[in-house]
Amino acid sequence: MAGPRNKTGKPASEDPVLIELGELLASRRRASGRLQQEVADSAGVSRSTLHTIEHGGAGVRFEKIVAVADALGLKVQFVEKSH
Prior knowledge:
The chain has four helices and no strands.
């Protein structure tokens, strides 16, 4: 079975926060050697939803993003902005 490809695509949105989040999750997934389908199955989301998240796409329910983070051993946390 092939491992994850180190391929980057065009971001699905212009939102820098979503793009950074997607890159973080994709990087974590690749570093763990897991395929999109494996993480999607663990998170209970479709592979296309995970793809959208990893490419910074808008319109994905927050619960799905949290589930993906959890499947990757991460927790979502809010921190105060520095001005």
